[in-house]
Amino acid sequence: MASDDGLTQTQTNVLPRAQQDAESNGVSPEQPENEEDVATRLPVDMYYQYDELYSKPFATPDSDIPENLLNLSHSFGYDCGRRANLQLLDESTLAFIAGNVLVMLDISTKQQHYLRSCSGGGIGAIMSHPSKEYFAVAEKGHQPFIVVYEYPSLQPYRILRGGTALAYSYVDFSPDGSLLASMGSAPDYMLTLWDWKHEQVVLRCKAFSQEVYRVTFSPENPAHMTTSGSGHIKFWKMASTFTGLKLQGLLGMFGKTSLTDIECYVELPDGKVVSGSKWGNMLVWDGGLIKVEVCRKNKKTCHAGTIQQFSLDKGELMSIGADGAIRTWDFEILNTANASNDSGLFEMEPMNELRMGGNASLCSLVKSSVPESSIWFAQDSNGGVWRLDLSFSNISEEPTCLFTCHAGVIQGMDVSRASHLMATTALDCSVKVFDFLSKTELTCSQFKQGGTALIWAPSLVNEKGGLLVTGFQDGVVRLLELLDPQGARALAGSGDAELRLKQALKPHNAPVTAIAYERNGEVLATGSAEGTVFFFAVGEEYKPIGLINVPGPVQGLEWSPYSDCKSTLLVFCRSGHVVEVQPPEPVDQNTAKTYRLSGLPTRTFHFRSIRSRIKREEEVARRRVIKEARRIKSEERRRKAKEQGLEPTEEELQEEEDDEGDLPSIFIPEPPSPLFCGFRSEPGMFWLSMGGYDSGFLYHCRFSEEDQDRDPKGEPQDEPFAFLAVHNADGDPIHTVSFSEDQQLMLCGMHSGVLRAYPLGPADQRSLSSLGAYWALSLHDNQYGHLRHARFSHDGRFVLTAGEDGNIFSLSVPLPREHSPPGRESPRAKVPSPRERQMRDAMARETEERVAATRRELAWEQERNTIALEKLQQRFRDAVSWDTITVSAVDSEDRVSTYRLPAQVEVRGHGASGAGGQGRPGTARHAGPPGVQDGAGKDGGRKDAAGERQHASHLSTGTPGGPKVAGMQAERLQRAAEKAERAQAQIDTWKKKWAELYAAKPDENCEDPADVLAIQQAIENMGDFKLKTDKDYSVPEHLRTSADKKRADLVTLEGQVYAKKTEMNARVAALQEAKVRLVSRQRRCSRRLQRVGQQLPPHLVLPAPAPLVLRPEEVPERRLQYSRATLERYAALRADGPTNQTQEGKGPTLLEQLEQEMLGAEEDEEEDEAEEEDGTPYSAVKSNDIPMPSATPAATELEKELRMEQEIRLTYAQDCLLEQMAEARAGFDGELRLLRHQKLELDCQGEAADLQHVTLFQELLLLQDFEDSQSPLQGRLQAHRDDQRGVMDQLDGCGEQLEAKRDDIGKLQESDQAMMAALQVSVGKNHPFSDFLTRVFKKKIKRVKAKEPGEEEEEEMDSEEEEDEDSDEDDSVSNDGEALDDSVCPPNCELELFEMVIQMREQRLDLEDHLAEEKAAAESLKKEYDSLAKKLKVVQASVKAAEEQLEMLSRELQQRLNQLYVVVPLRLHQIEFVRGGAVPSDLSQAVVVGRGVVPGLQTRVQGLQTEKQQQREQYRLARQQNVLLLRHRAHMEAQLLEAEQRCTLKQMQKLGRLVDVEALPSLVANMNLQQEKSRLDTQLREAARAKEAKHWEAKLDKAQQALMEVTRAHTERLVKKNTLICGKRKLEELMKVRQKKKRGWFDGQRLREDLGRLRRLVRTQREEAQVIKREIHILSRKGGPVLPPQQLTPRPHPAGLLPPLPLQGGFVGNVSPKMWRTNRRAARRTDEGPSPGNQSGVM
Fold it and tell me: Average pLDDT in the 1488-1511 region?
């Protein structure tokens, strides 16, 4: 037997049954090498102790926390979304997983029994044994176990270890129960086969690289297994290899079928596997491939969604879908199904179907263990367990729900304050109410949206405790009242209940995440994920107050308790922000326009990570401890070495100096860590629990007293002032915190699903000072069961938890016996008496009402004073951005002051923006016509080239569809085609180069770009050499100004002046701060100097400099600063003011006295603060460190020496202090003098700027006067220019299109000529039918365009008739003198050549149609171009007229501007206008120019002279080059003409005529290809004709035989006719004898009709024979074209004979095929003989 710490995990042999199965399949498992493996077999009666295995609660060691602090009472849910989370243990017990607990539900009594996991990390999967005697529980955690329990004793029977690393996802027993297969989850996905009874591994291997959902054994062959999962299915078998027994896997290949996740499958008896798909169809697998995909009729899916499970029962295949449907399928049909087409689908309908009602979504079924039972138990992923009768008969039972719960994450949970009731909501759109005392569900209500938050209204709001406030995903908040069916409010223990809607509100547009009532129950606050908090006034009907915005999604809301002086709301945002806001007053809000609240007092805190700093401090402390220990050890070593007389070695000294490296750096996570929860501690303080990087701590934070109204979006982050490390919580943050009623126990819901309980001390009051020891229990799933809600019951006897795994647990608090309630406890919850609580609440409300009444009484006075203060501040403080600050020098009378600047008004900014915005249209430069048309032209050229190449290739390839050529002929033709393609490619390359060359050719009127640029620069820079005072002066367009531009210049100047003054003010302010610091330091230095002087003899004490003081004008801002103490002192002075003034008669005013006191108080405070500072420049000498010996007459020599030394030191300290004070004073005065000099320069610049400002303002006034007349002209000119630009763009586009059309027309004409040349080359000059084929090629045929469907047939008939007429007119005559039809190939003419000519004629007609269309389009473009050119002339005239009008107005404006006086301050050295060596008194003839203009003009004159000479030389060289280029051009033209003549001569010598050289390669290849094609077509046609001739010969023999029989019948009829004629004659003779006197009416009319009928019959038969012959002739030419019928002139025939049959193209005359078939049917009816009526007449 194995030891307790674990059993062996080595691989062993297969059980005997598995060995037999493997041997039966040709697999030989390896044999044991020795008898030790047999000895490791475990005894059958061995069991483990459950109490030693299961995971117990954790309690901090050495603490007084009991292990049974909380006990599991009931589970109100289970993991309904987990795969195969329902197993049947016996007929009345179901087992399923709920977090860390295995729940065993008694179906009849609804009682639950529990088994906890052994690892504490959760349960991965469960599976019952086929015999129902055991069940396996596969767990989660590090190296988890598989525990096999015996049932019903529930004793641990076997423990399997080492199957996976972290968790199991599925387990399955073999059909005989001897083996167990387990599947591990990420990261190893290990498939393990166990001999579970002996705890040994049989086989093991990695199943797949992605998630595997399930593993099962084959029901027919235990040596085969199947696994499926994410995007795969795999088939396994045990195979014997040379290394032993192995698992071999075959991965299923999807082929054409889309890749899908496979949730379920079933193996058929013949080895096939049927699996599901995510779209709902069934896939049949055979040999690792998909044989067929099964769907319903009309390609409907088998299920609407994923198929979750298959079951093969009694020859029927049952499928269970997520759509809540159970369908049975015919196994035989499914097993033999094959795809009927390429789609791979097989359609069939289910035999039976059961569809669950509501929103049920089934994911697994287990069958009852009773034999021949049709009862199944179903797991509903939407929260429930069902009992189903799947007999599919008339007496089948209806589905019964055995257990219900929430599906998915529990979003909201709260308990009643008056009873043992609990309400929950989740995203499954349901709200449930539970009685956790009786462990029952009271009621459930469904809604259209999922619930996201829930709170139970306090007794202050609802005395009976039956009101729920629930938030939903769509932002709706619903008030639900818990009632009994009769309408009374339901209480726990009253039986059935229901939730009724009381009121619905819509405050948010995003999910509601938090709800909280104010402590007095007067205000309700709701928060949402969109970052808003909405307030409602609580009453019989809740009324909205308004909303505020917060920096992030709301995570939680908490109101202040009664202990705080005022009611505030704490808003915790997930982004790390915490906002404290005071509740609004409902009567003060105006919601007529908006519900958004403003002006609410708020404080904001933004969390900043300090975890890296904590780690850094921990590392520093650790290194300090290590260093101290190392120092002690080193000292001990040195002491021992010293005792031994040894010196320390260098290695020891180096070891002592070793550094441990750099400290951890400060790290701030980005993005910031999320905030999970928070709660108040003290007023203005709170605790935060953060996730991500900052997890593992509780951070104590508080609001900053500074910048309370700062913008939350742009505020700096705040750091906590304290923290508490949470034990073993790194990466496992706290999600929720809850306190007991007496505040002695704190519950924490962890991220890992663990519930922690921290006992608190009596004096904690949420300060958590005694936080340390704790109790922990793993309840929810450790991977995804984050514990989000934990609550105490109203009496503290129960704890309720809810997690993201959908589980809800109730835990009971064990009570001591002395606290146990006497008597039998009620099985249901009851309502406690709320009288005491109501009295306390009433007293608290009364106190709050009194305080509120007092505040309302003083509200008016407070509001009046507040408004008065705001007005004063707005009038005197806010209107000035910089006040006057005067800074004086220390040792001189120099001083410097700031500029008093008013606040910048918005009018200037608006003017600047307006000027910029309005000035843009006048100065905007419009670009030329866009380059789209150029691109279009290039694209068009490319398209034309492509079309030409395509046309050329079409001509060269000829008729497509010809047969393939093999052998040497094919290679030869291929080489010819490739050669033609290369030649064509070379031609295309030459064309492209020529096109590029011609495109680069400049226009004849084009000028050199360099010359154009030089001319433009000359025009812009040279001007017209007129002064602005000249009457003819024309202002350049780019120099013209407007009122908007001038206004912008004015605003720019003001902005520059303001910026300069602001910069100077900032420097003066910095100097003021420097003086404040100097005064403070001088005072500290003076005090130290005084202390030094007190210890020196009087004759050594030097006089101290005069103390520095700050004048009121140096710190004017202090006059506007006040505090509560200031206001109280002002009130005291005001009360004492009249008495003092009457006594003294004069003195400072109250404000002056108050200002002096404030200044003195601030100086004292600064001195006190300065004394506490260290490290200042004046702290070099401290008098306290120099004790002065007492001067006594009987001093010793040593004392005198010490006193002398002390005097020297003090004297030196005195000198240093005086020197430092003097240097500081001198340095400050120097900085002030430098700044004063710079300010004087800025003053001069400011005066000049003021003069410029005056000039600009005068110009602005003048421009505004002209603006009314100038603006319309500018607008008109701009409009005309826009029209001109638009017309030019249209004209350019039209010209480019016209040029492109002309190019297209030229190319089409060239293609037509090339086609004619190709015809001549193909036919040849000496061909006997050359004229005929040329005429066929040039024949004009009217082509029919597409018409309406109704007119199509008529148009075709007309076109055919017209073609026939044209063909009659154009018939030619053959060599024999007979007429030739151009639609039929004449005799002795090659049919292939004729067909090629016909095809080329069609191509020519296509070209002609295209050419006609292009010409028509070109003509329309030409007309449009002419009209646009005329329109452009008109627009240009309008532009010119508008420019002239604007020019006249600009001249008038310039003359008015010239009349303005401009002040230009000049110094004497700047005046160079000298006459007679002196400056004249009259400077009106002088010109003011820039300093560098005159030398520049002189240099320009010299440069122009030099440039003139250069231009003359360039002109001479250009004339010489022009002459050379003309000679070269003439020479090149002569060479080109000679080359053209040589080319023409070569063509005439070789070809006899001029041809298109470019088409020759394609024509040569075309001729060879046509010849080969013709020869092959001839051979194929001859073979086909021979074959068809035999067929028609046989058919003709049959026709001749039939003709002989018809002729024989006709002969018999003629004999009968002759007999009848003879009889007729006899009858006539008898008639003549008997009726001599009467003449009979019968004159042989009927006989003549019979004769005519017989004659027609013979003629019809002859025609039919001719038709058959014609058909034989036509069919013998199969493969040739079907030609139109010939028109032959009818010939006269002798009288009395039938006319010959004029056959035309297989039809009689011009009879249509339809009429011909009708005549044939009539002839057959005639051959069959007369109708019965006619027979009687004939006879």
Answer: 84
Q: What is the pLDDT of residues 52-90, one digit of tens each?
A: 888 889 999 888 889 888 999 999 999 998 999 999 999
Helix/strand/coil for 1307? helix
| Residue 969 tokens, joined | 């002929």
Report the sign of the C-alpha dihedral through residues 161, 163, 169, 171, in that order: negative
For the beta carbon of residue 950, count every other beta carbon within 10 angstroms: 10
Instruction: Tell me the per-residue pLDDT of 881-901, one tens digit each, with 9 for 90 and over.
Output: 888 888 899 888 888 999 888
Q: Are 380 and 360 in contact (CB under 8 A)?
A: yes
Measure the CA–CA gap between 1324 and 796, rounded to whole angstroms.
Answer: 116
Rg (CA), the chain: 56
Contact status, residue 1366 vs residue 1359, Cβ threshold 8 Å: no
**Alpha-carbon dihedral sign for residues 1498, 1500, 1502, 1508:** negative
CA distances from 180 to 6, 201, 978, 1541 (A): 19, 10, 70, 99
**What's 1439-1470 look like in SS3?**
HHHHHHHHHHHHHHHHHHHHCCCCCCCCCHHH
H/E element, 377: strand 375-380
Contact of 467 with 502, CB cutoff 8 Å: yes
Q: Which amino acid is at 873?
A: Q
SS3 624: helix
Following CA atoms 1195, 1199, 1202, 1203 in sequence, which dihedral angle do they give, to the nearest 10 degrees?
-20
Burial of 191 per CB tally in 10 Å (0-12, 13-18, 19+) = buried
Strands ordered across the beta sheet of 569-573 = 554-559, 569-573, 577-581, 602-606
CA distances, 1200 to each of 289, 1047, 1186, 1191, 1205 (Å): 113, 84, 15, 8, 9
Element (H, E) at 233: strand 232-241
How many other C-beta atoms lie within 10 A of the C-beta of residue 1158?
19
Report the candidate in 660, 1186, 1114 with the shortest Cα–Cα distance to residue 890.
1114
What are the percentages of helix, strand and coil residues in the chain, rounded to 5?
45, 20, 35
Taking the CA atoms of residue 1292, residue 1296, residue 1297 and residue 1299 in that order, the dihedral angle to the nearest 10 degrees is: 140
Starting at the earlier edge strand, list the strands of the sheet with 87-90: 87-90, 93-98, 101-106, 112-116
Rounded Cα distance between 400 and 404, Å, is 11
Contact criterion met (CB below 8 Å) for 349 and 366: no
Tokens 């006609």 sit on residue:
1412
pTM of the model: 0.52
User: How many C-beta atoms surround the C-beta of residue 221 within 10 A?
Assistant: 17
Q: Cβ–Cβ contacts within 10 Å for residue 1610, how many?
A: 16
1687-1714 pLDDT tens trace:
434 444 444 434 444 433 343 344 444 4
**DSSP secondary structure letter of residue 100:** T
The Cα 1466–Cα 1471 span in angstroms is 8
DSSP assignment, residue 84?
A: T
The answer for residues whose C-beta is within 8 angstroms of residue 555's C-beta and 6 or more apart is 513, 514, 572, 573, 574, 675, 676, 677, 678
Which amino acid type is present at position 395? I
User: In sequence order, which ranges of 1145-1196 are alpha helices (DSSP H)?
Assistant: 1150-1172
- 1242 touches 1063 (CB < 8 A): no
CA distance 916 to 1466: 33
Nearest to 1421 by CA among 1584, 1340, 1300, 1317: 1300
- Round the average pLDDT of the chain to a whole number and report it: 79
**Residue 562, phi then psi, degrees to nearest 5:** -65, -20
- Residues of 109-144 as b/e, b for ≥16 C-beta within 10 angstroms? eeebeebbbbbbbbbbbbbbbeebebbbbbbbbeeb
